[in-house]
Amino acid sequence: MGYGFLLSLLILVWIQLNGSVYCQSPTVVNVGALFTYDSVIGRAAKVAIEAAAADVNADPNILKGIKLKFIMQDTNCSVFMGSMEAFQLLERDVVAVIGPQSSSVAHMVSFIANGLQVPLISFAATDATLSALQFPFFLRTTLSDSYQMSAMSDLIHYYEWNEVISIFVDDDHGRNGITSLDAELAKRAAKTSHKLALPIGANASVISDLLEQSKLIGVRVYVVHVNPDSGLSIFSIAKHLQMMTNNYVWLATDWLSANLDSSSTINRKSLQTLQGVMGLRQHTPQSGQKAAFFSRWRDLRQKGLVDSGLNVYGLYAYDTVWTVAHAIDEVLKEQRNITFSFNKRLHDMKESKLQLENLKIFDGGKLLVSKLLKTNFTGLTGQVEFDSERNLIDGAYDVINIDRGSICRIGYWSLNSGLSVVPPEKLNREQQRKSRVNPKLKNASWSGGKKEKPRGWVVASNEKPLRVGVPNRVSFADFVTEDHDTHEIEGYCIDVFNAARKLVPYDIPYRFQVFGDGQSNPDYDELVRMVAEDVIDAAIGDITIVTNRTMIADFTQPYAANGLVIVVPVENTKSSAWVYLKPFTVEMWCVTGAFFLLIGVVIWILEHRINDDFRGSPRRQIITMFLFSFSTLFKTNQEDTVSTLGRMVMMVWLFLLMVVTSSYTASLTSILTVQQLSSPITGIDSLIASNQPIGYPGGSFVHSYLVDSLNIYKSRLVSLGNTDEYARALRRGPNDGGVAAIVDELPYVEEFLSKHREFGIAGHMFTKSGWGFAFKRGSPLAVDMSTAILRLSEDGGLQKINEKWFCRMGCITQRGQNSEPNQLHLVSFWGLFLLCAISTFTALLVFLLRMIRQFIQYKRKQRQLLAASSSDQSAPCSTGWSKVVYNFFDFIDEKEEAIKKIFKPSTNPQPPAS
Q1: Highest mean pLDDT, choosing among 309-318, 717-726, 850-859
Q2: Which of 109, 674, 675, 764 is the most exposed place for a label (fewest CB within 10 A)?
Q3: What's the CA angle centered on 324, arms 320 and 325, to 5 degrees?
Q4: What angle (nearest 5°) sits at the alpha carbon of residue 813, between those of residues 808 and 814?
């Protein structure tokens, strides 16, 4: 660009609009063409331009006998040669230049075209930075890379890839195209993680080295944006490097379709090399005009006049000729002559070897540009019309996929509809809107012949395993630490990581890197910072998810609930007057008392008819009823059960009573020896209000939280390294160089309290967070590991790991002033109470059924005797239900012996005494 700038500056300085006028004959109009003859695009474009020129000159409806004369120049894919050829072309009084083919050449020649006011109409320069503001005489009859990179970004987003590696030639076309891709990916929360810039004319060794380096990155989605003439060599080298397997994704811009369409005979072996590659082709609607031109092209090939296939750039070149012809025709209708102006200063430079005096300014350049911008006709490529940016309207692409040696079209992309399986010209406005909301493509085939969509990245390989940092804890080693003898990393967190890793649907080679000196707990903030700075790939351990850490790294779903609690010393409670009530909860006391009453009532019912101990005056019976079951507690009851049902109920009741009383005794003994909180600190508020020293675990986030969030002075905080220091500091207290309380995370506190019963938790947990694994920002592994942790939680795997490490001697429960240790809950005895209730009500039901049967027999016997002794043969009068119920309770109240006498044959049944 430095040479181009100097050359353009030279032209702009010398070109002035105050020269003499030169008039071209209206019978012939010169039009230039700049492209590279021996190239994929140039071979098709040359034939297409010649065919279009012949068609224009043979059409009597345009230009009215004026002939277009095309002057072609070969740029040889060189900015320098292209500029020189442009000068030579402009010396020949051309009114417009078709081309150039290269974006780099277009940048240079556009400066010259601006100075001489000659329109430049390119059919192949796709660089989006060729702007109408900078180059007012430049127009594009092909699609801009801004469209193509939007299509490529939509394609990447459709397959849910977040990172890509771009491969491009380091020139204006390559750099600016990838810059457009970066901008489009950013709109969809994706990015280019690495750029492989190929030098112009890079050999196989350079390409191989760059591809080999990219294998270490981990991203496996490649976007190749190069020129059509040398791009295929990249895939050949990639295949040699084992990079065309099912772990890789290869996406190509429209250079690939141009190359394949231009091949005179497609090499099947080459297509097999390209298996699974996906690319874009500029979309041209099907039409009779297009089909006729393809037929004409085949005829030319059969005659040996064409040695190249027809690609889409050939179609654009053909339409460009017609675009220029229509515009020139409109200009000639408005002004009959075509005039050029000599520049006086350039004309005076006859001594210069550059022969700048031959350059002339096209007086009708601005008018011709205005006519070009009004172009509106249907060509081989569809509707030819320009937008405000002087690009073709309604850009669209075919999405192609190489599968088993053939080129398959799996969908379309357009600016209006996005990705769709329906051609954009067949979609109405409503369908276009729905297509953009719900993009769709046909099933694609990928590298290696797989039909499943590749992940597009690998976490690690055997050559470069995942670098996993683990803290080397000194205290609470059960969570994570390094074994000093075997140097193996073990602990609760490591087991969770390994279990989750097995649920991830791919292999994760990894190696642990120990973080910490083994003398004190490491700084966890520094460990997470190492992940953010790419020193390690992940951090595994008891890492609390807090705000400042989530700003620099991605965390998994929490695998352990967590929060801060306060640990304080406890004191003895023997002096409590009501300590005997503490072994049972309120519910337990209520249910136990209810059963005492229930058993007393049921035993009285069962024994009343046959046991004299349960008979007597109403007052005596009530006292017996309510005191009987309580007396069984102390084995002082005077009454014995006689009935079988009563003994059965008593057997179950005594068993229940034995279990409950022994449990009560054990719990009361424990409570009388256990400790309760002795510190004046009862919660977070009293902790903040006091001026006493506070202990915290070294290396933890607790220090910053206490200082920054709770505004506690740093001078009050004492760093403690392990559980022994915890216990010593609390025992010494604030007046003897210790601390009044310790603030730490709940899992650590629970393990500490399981071994030190003289301490307890004051108040409630005052923060809520969790432990998670840290990964680099944007790492897909964080998402997959989160999914695996959720599965572990749902199927009970996390609970099993927790029990393995922390329930070897019984799981620890939170203890504090609001929850009594060793207190007995109803849930522990509900099975026994249920058994006792079932046996009691079963005995009562059997008793009632037997009484009902005896009462029915008694009433029947009574009626028989009354009927036999009475002279009146009429049926006895029926009595009401209330009388029956009354008689039934009188019957039950009778002694068993009296009832048996009633049923003796010689005895006349008498009604029970009232």
Answers
A1: 309-318
A2: 764
A3: 115
A4: 145
